Amino acid sequence: MLERWFERSFVIVLFLSNMGVVDALIRKHAPQPGLEVLNDGEPLAGVIVQLAIYLWGMLFVCIRWRRVIGAIQGVRSLVAFCALALVSMLWSIQPLVTLKRSMLMLVTTVLAIYLGERYSMEELARLLAQSLCLIMIAVIIIHFVSPAFIVDYRFVDAGDSHRGGWKGLSEHKNLFGEYMALAVALLLLVRFKRWDRLRYCFMVLAAISMVASRSANALACTFAVVAAMPLWRHISSRGDRRVQILVTSFIACALVLLAFFAQGNMGALLQLLGRDTTLTGRTEIWRAVVLAIDKRPFLGYGFGAFWDSVQGETLQVWSNIGFVVRGAHSGYLDLCLAYGIVGVPLVFYLFVTGFRKALDYCRSARCQSISLWPVTYLLFFFLYNLTESELMQSWRSLSYLLFATVFTALQLHDRGHVAVLHPVPKVQVNPRSSMAAHLVRGSTSHRGFVRRI
What we know:
Layout: H1 2-18, H2 21-26, H3 44-63, H4 65-74, H5 76-87, H6 95-118, H7 121-145, H8 173-189, H9 198-212, H10 216-235, H11 241-264, H12 266-272, H13 282-295, H14 312-321, H15 331-339, H16 343-364, H17 373-384, H18 398-421, H19 434-443, H20 447-452
């Protein structure tokens, strides 16, 4: 019992650290805009704490090393995406930076594979929900004790739509908005074992915190993924196939019409969200980044290397847009900066495979509410990276950790589901025989899946 509590505590601590809680509590001030941000390194205390968390996690990986290796063999595409980061050191403009960050990405990926192998999807969702609820409780307490601590003061000179946005215990207000958006979607689906009605209070609190973050992207993504939940539920149902096709076609047509309407009224919609047609300068960044990608279109500039340079194409991008940024504000443009067009097919394959297996998971779980979580998160991850760079900040990102964990859990669930669909007939055997012991051991190899079913 104590060992299980110790292990679950690690998962919650890992989630919190990847949300930036450790850095927020240790760092005396937020990174400032401008060239000064390049000299604002990670505090030594934060590095030590993060290293201790990684070592804590690797201890559990070593304990379950056989199972983790077996899980790694089942997620080769994810491992290939991670290996590509390390290989990109060969053409990186900053090989040492690429080496450091690719090694951190490797550790994060291994921990994600361990989580996906160790816990069921429902257990992972509950642990994430607990972590997000702890964040909300801490932010509310700090708001009453020291409200200035949770406000993102990098936007004091910005417009009213940005000024005063909450960053909570994260590095940036948009990150806090992302986490609160995840909390809203997750609390709609997960069930608390005790005091289940309490989750509705946290859901309302998460929605209020998301609005307080002044993150339009989080608000738009939340609306999209929540609106899509009935669609996933219908697709995964076991009703009449012809009715499913008819309803799905109707929903698809409605979405196409909605997209055309949004395109024709984009200015009004952005004004409603308090944004302009440049998406707070993002379109200017994208144009400058596309020019940089065009200079090295096939292999890119190396994983995590482009934005830490103060010369070459990085300096040219800053010169074109007139200010300093640390990312393209698009995970897919940052993907091309890191890997060129080489990495695009691999990421596309990960998304397609993940979505397909997430829908299969919905069907196998008989459309319980929690069964919608994988496809909901994958859609959120896909949409959020259109205007943010969480895809390629995998060395410190909760988003990538969750993506790799959900992808692993889906892959292993699919393999376990095949075994359950074709069970071995029950045979009366002597429990003391060696063959019986082998069967007993084999029957517990997928205990996480059996518990879910």
